[in-house]
């Protein structure tokens, strides 16, 4: 019967249906920051909740995709998928034999979920084992993370997956088509978004790279969601606001023991960009729009901006020959720009004397009669 079967068996499971959703997670794996946060919640609890969140994302639609990156202190590492090679399986030992005890332990787990879990845990363990403890202590120790490199890598991967699903028909019309369809999410075959789980605080030295990544994500309509577990980062809050993402900073009391983290993930970050158009999303708070100076990489309230390249400086006095450090343009500073204004003391009001009794100006003396008009 198979030889005469003329049924059209073309796969049309996703034709006219819900588009696939790509969730890219950037996990801050700074050991110093996690050690500081350990009394509230540990990295192992966060990984457990993230795995449940990933399973929920994949269970919504069979065509959904997932990618996980680790933003470390000195590099960016892929946790899933592993580039170039297959991840080591927890079912096998080093000599290639099958571990039957491990097979029985995970017998009740859905196999695609189990494969992703094994790959993420194996790559994370390899990343932590390869971290030099001496690089985390002393003067070289830092509580910063490579968030700029993580954003660049994630956006590159998202663009690659988008081109694989819907390749452009002609390279000459790519720019025109992108401009015309950039505002229509319904026409996209892959809805992408980024989730940043951050525990580090200082990102001022990566200001330019982070802002470039924000503008690229805004142009591609990729929301940057931020789950801030510790510290304060002005630029991640700006990234979430500029790309219509969700920024949440849970209270430490809600995260104690890891019990409340899963609720934040499920209720705040599970809907994609298409579903959020019909929901009241959380995280609409006041945004700190301060910038970082290009000379000292510190956040400033008032700065001096170059009129050519828009570089920001906290103190023009450090500029050699009044030239911009970025583009070399000669800056015309007004005479006396660095002179502090003189404080003139307020003149004291004279007290009036009426019948030998002094009173402040404008206040009638006691016992005086009310004037008649």
TrEMBL record:
<comment type="similarity">
    <text>Belongs to the TFB4 family.</text>
</comment>
<keyword id="KW-0804">Transcription</keyword>
<dbReference type="Pfam" id="PF03850">
    <property type="entry name" value="Tfb4"/>
</dbReference>
<dbReference type="InterPro" id="IPR036465">
    <property type="entry name" value="vWFA_dom_sf"/>
</dbReference>
<keyword id="KW-0479">Metal-binding</keyword>
<keyword id="KW-0539">Nucleus</keyword>
<keyword id="KW-0227">DNA damage</keyword>
<dbReference type="GO" id="GO:0006289">
    <property type="term" value="P:nucleotide-excision repair"/>
</dbReference>
<dbReference type="GO" id="GO:0008270">
    <property type="term" value="F:zinc ion binding"/>
</dbReference>
<dbReference type="GO" id="GO:0000439">
    <property type="term" value="C:transcription factor TFIIH core complex"/>
</dbReference>
<dbReference type="GO" id="GO:0006355">
    <property type="term" value="P:regulation of DNA-templated transcription"/>
</dbReference>
<feature type="region of interest" description="Disordered">
    <location>
        <begin position="348"/>
        <end position="373"/>
    </location>
</feature>
<comment type="subunit">
    <text>Component of the 7-subunit TFIIH core complex composed of XPB/SSL2, XPD/RAD3, SSL1, TFB1, TFB2, TFB4 and TFB5, which is active in NER. The core complex associates with the 3-subunit CTD-kinase module TFIIK composed of CCL1, KIN28 and TFB3 to form the 10-subunit holoenzyme (holo-TFIIH) active in transcription.</text>
</comment>
<feature type="compositionally biased region" description="Low complexity">
    <location>
        <begin position="356"/>
        <end position="373"/>
    </location>
</feature>
<keyword id="KW-0862">Zinc</keyword>
<keyword id="KW-0863">Zinc-finger</keyword>
<dbReference type="InterPro" id="IPR004600">
    <property type="entry name" value="TFIIH_Tfb4/GTF2H3"/>
</dbReference>
<keyword id="KW-0234">DNA repair</keyword>
<protein>
    <recommendedName>
        <fullName>General transcription and DNA repair factor IIH subunit TFB4</fullName>
    </recommendedName>
</protein>
<keyword id="KW-0805">Transcription regulation</keyword>
<comment type="function">
    <text>Component of the general transcription and DNA repair factor IIH (TFIIH) core complex, which is involved in general and transcription-coupled nucleotide excision repair (NER) of damaged DNA and, when complexed to TFIIK, in RNA transcription by RNA polymerase II. In NER, TFIIH acts by opening DNA around the lesion to allow the excision of the damaged oligonucleotide and its replacement by a new DNA fragment. In transcription, TFIIH has an essential role in transcription initiation.</text>
</comment>
<dbReference type="GO" id="GO:0005675">
    <property type="term" value="C:transcription factor TFIIH holo complex"/>
</dbReference>
